[in-house]
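Task: sequence design from structure.
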């Protein structure tokens, strides 16, 4: 869309008038024909300039320069053409040339505010703040009663960290136009920045005195005091607001915050309830307040207040997704995960674009062990966020748990493609891909995934355990499997699962005596609650010639459950079945 600059347009018209004046002067001074440019040349310059304007308005800046330059060649001291060229080079992002032409224009006509403001703006962009301030000083000298120039100069001083000078400029502007909200805000910002909080507060008080009935001035003053840890001084301003307007929600909210910080919870809750009673306060603002309140609600009474407020909010705004999301947060904190998920689902149905809500839904699906729901919800999330690797990972995890390993591998590969290689999620994806490809008997891909995970984190317990155990089952890379298993039990000497893994690697390597030591420790640590560990213990006892004890352990393993499919045959035939 074309951007029409009115100030620029009027300056261009002035330029055309200047060119026309040259033509008029030509008529009156015919005796100087040889020294003056011909009327035809001036008309030609005007034509070139008009053509340049046309291309500028069409945003064809390169073409505009071409015609402006032709006009300038005829009238080289025309400030309007120089100004136009500066503007044009600014559009072309060539600030050096823009400054060059703006300087020339301002030198020729330093009374033109448009020229000065353009030059000052260009100086600021190049961080030539002193030069920009001098430009405004020149303009102020010619227009000492124009407040806008002092305000613009003050902004330059702020950029250059000359805060005292900025305050002087604002004060001069204020003398011209009186107490002004914008100038007061700027002065307060500067005063706070340089540590003069008391003076900033005085400025706010002056603004309030200029219009005592203006509630926003009192609100701003209270906010200034609160942000500078002067809470007790803020309270009278808020009370004054509530005398003028007892239903002012913002004042109630600010008082609630003050009372919460003072530990006066009953007063805090009461102020929040009064704020929520204000029908003019929109649902989004109320939701934002509730989020902040939830973070500070520690006692049961405050939590119950939050519950009551969010129920009121949902009743009044049933189609507001944030309200349902907040209610979900409260229910989750309470431990009612199923109800929390229901609220999150409502929020997602009303607004699918809330990333965190989908994450909460899917995580609760996993917590509730409702894996089919996790698949459905993660696929819905992927439709909305196809480039979010976390949702692909959750989808792959769900399919893995459903033993649909092909689908799991597809989703996990997409997750890996979308995930930065230096992230923690990348490790988790590779770890699960290792498990998935092992289940698909794609052992090379499995090993590559595990190796990638270990490269990022050599002490990843999940990978060290599963990789070493699967290698032992395949009777492959046993030295590597033993090294990983040994590292794992050194880190976790009391973990029965890890002890069993290392023992089984030793068993496959036919180091039965050492395997027995670790299996005995595993049985003790697991308190005989794992059929697999007890079955493995029986196997190693059989290898060591303790046949009766082996059968006894196999029978015990069968009672516990989760054993190999060969357990019944082992017991019946009283021997190992390979």
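Answer:
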């Amino acid at each position: 869309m074309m951007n029409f600059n009115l100030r620029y347009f009027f300056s261009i018209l002035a330029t055309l008038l200047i060119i026309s004046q040259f033509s008029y002067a030509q008529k009156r001074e015919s005796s100087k024909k040889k020294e003056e440019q011909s009327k035809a040349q001036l008309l030609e310059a005007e034509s070139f300039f008009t053509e340049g304007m046309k291309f500028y308005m069409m945003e064809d800046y390169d073409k505009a320069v071409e015609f402006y330059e032709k006009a300038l060649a005829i009238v080289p001291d025309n400030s309007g053409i120089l100004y136009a060229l500066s503007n044009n080079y600014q559009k072309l992002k060539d600030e050096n040339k823009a400054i060059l032409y703006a300087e020339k224009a301002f030198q020729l006509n330093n009374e033109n505010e448009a020229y000065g403001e353009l030059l000052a703006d260009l100086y600021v962009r190049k961080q030539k703040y002193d030069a920009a301030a001098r430009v405004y000083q020149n303009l102020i000298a010619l227009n000492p009663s124009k407040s806008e120039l002092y305000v613009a100069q003050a902004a330059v001083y702020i950029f250059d960290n000359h805060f005292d000078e900025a305050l002087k400029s604002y004060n001069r502007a204020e003398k011209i136009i009186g107490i002004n909200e914008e100038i007061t805000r700027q002065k307060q910002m500067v005063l706070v920045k340089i540590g003069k909080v008391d003076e900033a507060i005085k400025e706010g008080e002056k603004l309030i005195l200029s219009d005592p009935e203006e509630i926003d001035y009192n609100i701003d003053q209270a906010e200034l005091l609160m942000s500078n840890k002067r809470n007790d001084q803020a309270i009278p301003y808020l009370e004054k607001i509530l005398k003028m307007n007892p239903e002012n929600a913002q004042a109630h909210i600010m008082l609630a915050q003050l009372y919460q910080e003072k530990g006066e919870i009953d007063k805090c809750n009461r102020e929040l309830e009064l704020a929520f009673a204000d029908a003019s306060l929109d649902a989004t603002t109320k939701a934002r307040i509730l989020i902040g309140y939830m973070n500070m609600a520690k006692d049961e009474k405050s939590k119950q207040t939050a519950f009551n407020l969010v129920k009121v909010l949902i009743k009044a705004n049933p189609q507001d997704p944030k309200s349902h999301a907040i209610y979900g947060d409260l229910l989750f904190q309470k431990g009612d995960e199923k109800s929390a998920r229901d609220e999150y689902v409502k929020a997602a149905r009303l607004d699918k674009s809330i990333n965190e809500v989908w994450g909460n839904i899917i995580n609760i699906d996993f917590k509730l062990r409702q894996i089919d729901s996790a698949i459905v919800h993660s696929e819905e999330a992927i439709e909305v966020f196809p480039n979010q690797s976390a949702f692909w990972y959750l989808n792959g995890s769900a399919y893995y748990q459903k033993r649909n390993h092909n689908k799991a591998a597809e989703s996990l590969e997409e997750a890996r493609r979308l995930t930065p290689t230096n992230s923690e999620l990348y490790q988790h994806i590779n770890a699960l891909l290792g498990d998935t490809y092992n289940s698909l008997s794609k052992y090379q891909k499995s090993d590559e995934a595990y190796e990638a995970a270990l490269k990022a984190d050599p002490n990843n317990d999940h990978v060290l355990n599963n990789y070493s155990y699967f290698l032992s089952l395949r009777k492959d890379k046993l030295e590597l499997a033993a090294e990983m298993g040994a590292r794992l039990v050194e880190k976790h000497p009391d973990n029965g699962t890890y002890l069993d893994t290392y023992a089984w690697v030793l068993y496959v390597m036919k180091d039965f005596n050492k395997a027995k030591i670790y299996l005995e420790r595993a049985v003790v640590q697991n308190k005989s609650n794992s059929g697999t560990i007890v079955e493995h213990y029986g196997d190693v006892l059989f290898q060591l010639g303790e046949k009766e004890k082996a059968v006894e352990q196999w029978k015990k393993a069968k009672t516990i459950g989760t054993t190999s499919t060969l357990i019944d045959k082992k017991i019946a035939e009283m021997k190992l079945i390979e």
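The chain is about 80% helix and 0% strand.
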